[in-house]
Structures are given as structure tokens and as C-alpha cells.
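Hi support team,

I've been running sequence recovery on a batch of backbones for a student project. Most finish fine, but this one hangs at about 90% for roughly twenty minutes before it completes. I'm not sure whether the input is malformed or the queue is just slow. I've pasted the C-alpha cells below so you can try to reproduce it. Let me know if you need the job ID as well.

Thanks,
M.K.
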């Protein structure tokens, strides 16, 4: 049922304040006079000790689910102190990469049925790792075959392009990081401010959804482009990859997410006055580095569209010559949840304006059950 919306993708983008609320329901503890704020993940609580003791945490997934894990990686590293590595499921299998008994392998999958991820799970089970699932589908193969896990509870996602599952996956993995770090006194203040940020996150997403018309106007400007680059770093490297994935898979426009730190190692050669470039430069520890990336792109006459925190337009675009997308600022590790929304809207409007099928992109299936 699409309700008042024309497409499922549109409906699922707009229902993110509600899906995020459902994802967090019953899992955030407000705390009180003598009790600290904390998170409660029923499916993980008996396994936290083992996870904290593991030698490494390995995230394994495909496509959007991989990108969600990439967005959560920095906060998991920070709060757990355990090294976190990333594996695209098919690549792990191609290499038969090493997985050890002392590893915690985390399988991220909206459907819980993706063949590559499922085969990687079988492989990790054979190698004796603790296998944790993060999935949206109760009773799915990944939910059944992992030792433990967390359901993201985002509600059924019908559009082939994943939107609300992505934001809920990031929130769940941030909650996993909070739960693993729960025994560390030195990070308690940090954890409590993230928990406050989670409580307020649905409101911030509601606020960023107001950019709908602005994103439609931007889509009109970009409708006939051949290509669109997206630069991000730190927490928002994942945002660049995921924004580009949305644009290519639904709007059928070439788009590439680029780690901004890699700019001078090749991509800079592409920059001219024609190619549109989205730069994600919201407020966080990498901000000044992104400012210098913007200056360098600007010096090469790049056509820039800069995403920045509200009120910061003049610090990312002093000359006023680039287009600016201002988004509400949230806790750094939650910023990817807010930042992806305008890019989802952009991909959606580009697709409609270009006349392509939004909910069933050419050649793609919702659940990829073959390798
Ligand atoms: C559970 C109930 C929820 C109820 C809540 C009340 C289910 C599915 N969930 O939610 O309806 O409101 O208790 O306390 O009945 N699991 C895996 N792999 C995965 C995902 C989950 O093994 O990929 C396991 C978990 O370890 C757990 C179980 O499935 O044992 C349920 O997980 P989850 O729904 O996340 O647990 P709760 O949030 O506690
Ligand atoms: C992109 C998209 C795909 C899936 C990928 C993994 O919008 O939906 O990239 O994310 O096929 O699917 P799941 O998460 O079901 O394992």
C-alpha cells in the first residue's frame, strides 16, 4: 500500500522518522538519578562479553548493507577498541580470506537471504567465528543461521533500492557499538550524548525531509548529466558510496562515491567546469580537511554541490558560487543517517524526471538469491 505516495521508494524515504523510531523502540534506556543511559539489545546481551574479547570484528555484506556497516565502523572502533575490518561478501569468498575462531563476524543484510552473504556466513561458521546477524527479516536464512543478532525492525521494504533499511541498519550498528562499549567508564559521557542524539534523530530526519522540493529542483538541473561524483570522508565516506549507488541504480546515471582523501591520487584529473560534484562537508573532525578539498576543486573550476551543516554555508562556499545543501547537525556518528536523506531524494527525483521505473530498476531484483 503506497498510501498518498506515487512510489514505494518515495514512501519509504518519507517514513524514515517512523521506521527509525520503531528500530529504537524498547532498546534505549533513558536512565535516571542513579542509572546511566544505556542501550538494551535483547539478542546480543548474552554475547557481549565474547564480542569484547574477540580479536577482530569483521563486517560482511553486499551493496547498501555493506555501506551501512562502513558508516558504523568508526564508532564501533572507537567504543569497542577492537579492530574492525570490512568485507564485501563475494570478495571474501573469492579470496577465501582468513576468518578465525577469535573473530566476531557480523552479517548485515536487509533481506537476510542474499546468496553471497549467506555463503560467507556458512564459510565463517565452518571457520569457528562467532556469527552475528543484523537483518530486517525475522525468520530469514541469515537470522536463523547466525548465533545471535539484532532485527532492525524497519518494516517491510518494497522498493528495490534500499532506503529506510539503510538508516535503520546504521542506527542498530551504532547501538551495537554502544552496547559493546557499555563497560568502559572513560567513554560514558560520549555514549550518553550519542544516546541523546538517537532519541532526537527521528526529529532531525523529519527536518531534513523538508529538503524534498530543493532536491527536486537540483534534480531538474542534473537531469541530462552523464555522470555525478560524490566526495566524502570519515563518517561520511559511506554516504558518498551510498548516495552514488542510489543514483546509479535507480536514475541509471553513472555515479561514483570517492574517498576525499584519495582525490589527488587520481580522481582530481576528472574535474572540469562541466562534471557535477557533490561534496559532503558537514561538521565533524574532518571538516577542515573537507574545506581544503572544496578549495582545490574550486580552483579547478569544479561544479560543486556542497552538503554542509545548517548555518555553515559561508564557511564551505565563501564565494557563493556553489550550490549548498544545508542539513541539521547531529552527533558525528549519526550524521550519515541525516546526510543520506537528501541524496535519496535526489536519486528519487532524478529517476522520475528521467522517466525510469523507480521501484523496479532495470535488471535488478530485491533479493539477490544467486551468486
Ligand atoms: C524480542 C522479540 C520482540 C519482542 C522483544 C521483547 C522476536 C523476533 N523479537 O526482540 O518481538 O518485542 O523481544 O523483549 O521475537 N537473532 C539472530 N540473528 C539475527 C537477528 C536476530 O540470531 O540476524 C536472534 C537474537 O539473538 C535473538 C532473537 O533472534 O535471540 C530476536 O532478536 P531481536 O528481535 O533483535 O530481539 P529483541 O529486540 O530482544
Ligand atoms: C541497493 C540494494 C542492494 C542490496 C544488496 C544486499 O539499493 O538494495 O545493494 O543492499 O543486494 O541486500 P541485502 O541487504 O538484502 O543482503
Amino acid at each position: 500500500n503506497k498510501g498518498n505516495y506515487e512510489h514505494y521508494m518515495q514512501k519509504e524515504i518519507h517514513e524514515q522518522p517512523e521506521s527509525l523510531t520503531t528500530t529504537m523502540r524498547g532498546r534505549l534506556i533513558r536512565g535516571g538519578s542513579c542509572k546511566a543511559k544505556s542501550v538494551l539489545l535483547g539478542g546480543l546481551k548474552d554475547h557481549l562479553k565474547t564480542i569484547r574479547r574477540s580479536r577482530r570484528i569483521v563486517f560482511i555484506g553486499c551493496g547498501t548493507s555493506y555501506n551501512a556497516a562502513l558508516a558504523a565502523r568508526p564508532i564501533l572502533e572507537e567504543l569497542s577498541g577492537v579492530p574492525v575490518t570490512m568485507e564485501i561478501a563475494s570478495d571474501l569468498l573469492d579470496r577465501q580470506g582468513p576468518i578465525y575462531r577469535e573473530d566476531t563476524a557480523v552479517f548485515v543484510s536487509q533481506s537476510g537471504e542474499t546468496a553471497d552473504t549467506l555463503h560467507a556466513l556458512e564459510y565463517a561458521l565452518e571457520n569457528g567465528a562467532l556469527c552475528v546477524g543484523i537483518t530486517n527479516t525475522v525468520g530469514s536464512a541469515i537470522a536463523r543461521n547466525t548465533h545471535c543478532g539484532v532485527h532492525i525492525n524497519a518494516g517491510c521494504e518494497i522498493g528495490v533500492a534500499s532506503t529506510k533499511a539503510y538508516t535503520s541498519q546504521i542506527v542498530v550498528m551504532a547501538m551495537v557499538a554502544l552496547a559493546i562499549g557499555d563497560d568502559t567508564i572513560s567513554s560514558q559521557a560520549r555514549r550518553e550524548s550519542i544516546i541523546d542524539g538517537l532519541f532526537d534523530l527521528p526529529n532531525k530526519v523529519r527536518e531534513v525531509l523538508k529538503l524534498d522540493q530543493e532536491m527536486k529542483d537540483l534534480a531538474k538541473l542534473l537531469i541530462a548529466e552523464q555522470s555525478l561524483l560524490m566526495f566524502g570522508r570519515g563518517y561520511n565516506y559511506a554516504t558518498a558510496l551510498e548516495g552514488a549507488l542510489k543514483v546509479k541504480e535507480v536514475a541509471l546515471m553513472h555515479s561514483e562515491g570517492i574517498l576525499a582523501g584519495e582525490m589527488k591520487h587520481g580522481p582530481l584529473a576528472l574535474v572540469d567546469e562541466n562534471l557535477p560534484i557533490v561534496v559532503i562537508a558537514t561538521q565533524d573532525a574532518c571538516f577542515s580537511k573537507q574545506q581544503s578539498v572544496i578549495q582545490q576543486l574550486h580552483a579547478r573550476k569544479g561544479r560543486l554541490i556542497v552538503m554542509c551543516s545548517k548555518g555553515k554555508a559561508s564557511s564551505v562556499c565563501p564565494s557563493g558560487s556553489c550550490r549548498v545543501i544545508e542539513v541539521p547537525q547531529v552527533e558525528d556518528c549519526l550524521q550519515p543517517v541525516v546526510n543520506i536523506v537528501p541524496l535519496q531524494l535526489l536519486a528519487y527525483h532524478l529517476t522520475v524526471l528521467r522517466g525510469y521505473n523507480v521501484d523496479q530498476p532495470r535488471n535488478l531484483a530485491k533479493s539477490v538469491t544467486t551468486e
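--
Follow-up from support: It reproduced on our side and the slowdown came from queue contention, not your input. The pocket of uridine-diphosphate-N-acetylglucosamine (ligand 1) is lined by residues 42-43, 133, 135, 138, 142-143, 146, 148-151 (CB under 6 Å). No action needed from you.
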